[in-house]
Structures are given as C-alpha cells and as structure tokens.
Design a protein that fits this description.
mainly alpha, globular
Length: 183
C-alpha cells in the first residue's frame, strides 16, 4: 500500500482539481478522510481477522463497492443542504466515490501484499495491475522510519505525488471547472 501520507495527498489533489473558489474546511477534510479511510481495515488484525479474509486488510474496504457506499454516506450525512438525489448531490456522491476508489486503485500499483479485492463483495479475488512501480509501504512505524521507508516515499513522490499534483493544478488552471457545487 502507499503510505497514508500519499493517500492524503490524493485527497488534497482531488479537492484542488474540483475547487472553484473557496471550499469549506469540511469538504477538504472529507476529501482527505475518504482517500485514507480504507486503510482503517488494518484494525481487523487486532480482532484476529486474517489478511486474506473478506474484511481483512485490502479486502472489502478497498473495493469499489465500499467506495460507492462511502460516497453515498458522505453526501447524505455531510451535505444535507443539497437535496438528496439532485444533480448537485449526485456530483458529490460521484466525487467522494472517486476519491475513495483511488485508494484501492493506487494499492493495485504496489509491489507487495496479497492484492486488492476491488470487486468485493461480488468477487473476493485480489488484484494487482500488471505494472507495479510503487514500493509497498511497511505496516509498522519502525519499518517506515528506515531505509526502506525512505525508498517507499521516493517511489511515491515520483509515481503518485508529482502526477497527482500536476493533474490537480493543470485541471484547476486549464479547465477551470465551474460544474462542481461550491460546498
């Protein structure tokens, strides 16, 4: 998996790409949270749930189904000013779905672990993409503050941060999205 820092960068980059003027702190915080939250599934280890289980690390909570559910929940709970099922509400659902989905998709580009159950709960097969240039992050703090941790961060800077920030600012400055609701 990429580090939590990198997933958070993706949340900020996504928010930057769609922002048109000042956006609420809630919008920025939810963008980061949605990009990071799938890794809360590491708590499953504390409950004796094995890595390979449907609800283990990189299982259901890294899936596109979970991303859709979270997008629906975030829009329903945190954006009540937008009428449910209105076009603006669906844009928010789609945005938070996409931000959450980036987590599992990015993890498919890493070079370690058991793979990602992108299609769970319908198919619990774990996937990697054919190209896996991102170094998998250690799960422990001790492993992270090591030479390996530095290699992981350099890999993420090159393969994730730079393209994400270029895309975010390029989208913001070149396209100037005006279709996204100001929240």
């Amino acid at each position: 998996m990429p580090t939590l820092i990198t997933h958070a960068v993706i949340g900020v980059a996504a928010a930057t790409a769609v922002a048109h003027g000042p956006m609420s702190a809630r919008f920025w915080a939810l963008s980061v949270c949605c990009a990071v939250i799938p890794d809360a599934d590491v708590l499953a280890f504390a409950f004796g749930i094995p890595y390979s289980h449907t609800f283990g690390h990189r299982g259901f909570f890294h899936s596109l189904s979970f991303a859709l559910l979270l997008g629906l929940v975030v829009a329903a709970l945190f954006f009540r000013q937008d009428r449910a099922f209105s076009p603006e509400w669906w844009l928010l659902v789609g945005y938070f779905f996409a931000v959450t989905a980036t987590h599992g998709i990015l993890d498919c580009f890493t070079n370690g672990g058991l793979g990602i159950a992108l299609l769970s709960p319908f198919d619990n097969t774990r996937y990697f993409f054919d190209v896996t240039p991102i170094q998998v992050s250690p799960l422990s703090l001790r492993g992270f503050i090591s030479e390996r941790g530095i290699r992981v961060l350099v890999s993420e800077l090159w393969w994730v941060w730079a393209p994400a920030l270029l895309l975010a600012f390029g989208t913001r400055w070149l396209v100037r999205p005006v279709w996204f609701p100001r929240v």
